[in-house]
Amino acid sequence: MASRTLSASERALTLYEALPYPNVPLSQTARNALPEMFKMSYTTAQYVRTHAVIEPEGKVLLNAGCGSGWETLMMAEANPGAKIVAFDLSPASVKLTEERLRYHGFTDTEFYVLNLLELDRLGIQFDFISLNDVLYLLEDPTDGLRAMKRVLKPEGIIRANLHHRYQRQVFFRMQEAFQMVGQFDVAPATGAKNVREFMGSLQEEVAKGVLWNPASYTEDPAILNNYLLSNDKGFTIPELFEMLRQAGLGFLSLVDMPDWSVESLFKEVPEFVRRKLEAMSPMERLQLYELIRPAHRLIDFWVDHAGSSLVFPWSDEDWLEGSVQFNPILLDSPRFHQEYTKALQENRPYEMQWTGATHGRITLPADKLKWLAPLLQGPTPVREVIQGVVELGSLEAEKAADEVLTYLTALEDFLFILLQPSL
Ligand SMILES: C[S@@+](CC[C@H](N)C(=O)[O-])C[C@H]1O[C@@H](n2cnc3c(N)ncnc32)[C@H](O)[C@@H]1O
What is the CATH number of domain 8-166+232-256+296-305? Predict the structure, then answer.
């Protein structure tokens, strides 16, 4: 009997039904995975879109292509009071997701076995959709974006991502090589074993050149999701923007935007580059960055219905009359409170992972920990923060106001704190 070519969905189903992804024990909590929870936070995404602090309570959130539910758990933990809907092509994955959410006590949930392209069959409209590590597996990712747009409420936001063409080029080359030596036609466990044998047989320098490090590939899924991933594809920034245009979606931001700063690539930006940068669109700046330093595995983005977002820059008055708060995922994190308080008591800086900051890390110097301490209790008027800094004794009122506003503005760029103007 002649064998036919499997569709992208059939290939995904074969792999993920056998090995639901990721392989994380049911009992592990996601509550401290702040860098990932950041990407799943409805409030953070809406703040990027509108500058408003909107609570997730009562919102309907969708984790599309939920895999084994690790990400779904993060979504539930990052968005207290929201209804969580999750689906995947793979029944085994959906079952695990359901068990995981139940194990951790989340009950306002719904689970479905479904193809992303048939999402409208659910008859539900969503406030926020997260699709992590799925879009690039589809035959045509634009169809996936269109499917999500059809079920997105008018004010809703989609967070999704694509593999980066340049960053991941070694894997795309090796996937082709392994196809040539027949490893896409064998059972997953056999393929993983053969990849290990193949890589172990390469000259040392050659193996390094294809990013082979045996310690990183002791588990089969690591091999299957990289060197043997079917239908894996890479994209560039202009290609993403073209897909969004075709799907009628509007680009809001990359979720790790500070890490795509062209200026950060230079010791000093040459004058002719600076002049060009001033005239560039956001897309062109990101494109220039990826051409110089394709460092990110994913192009990870927030989008909405094209033309529906409107964000005005904050004025000095908004700042002075407003209140600031830590991003709610920080405020809700017992670990953040504990570590912050400990660093404060020991009068030392506090360094942590934070997706919104440059290189995914942020350091709060010891003096700034004191400045921001009132925010641990909740939203705090900016004038109170300034007054507190004056009372600490090292700065006069005017200088304190200047320095506090400069610092708060930088933290707001990282979505580490959010501003609420006075009403
Ligand atoms: C790499 S895993 C990612 C799982 C999860 N999103 C995460 O990040 O932990 C890819 C998942 O996408 C699912 N998938 C692939 N194509 C799909 C489709 N067309 N519709 C629904 N799910 C799909 C697979 O079954 C698999 O569980």
Answer: 3.40.50.150
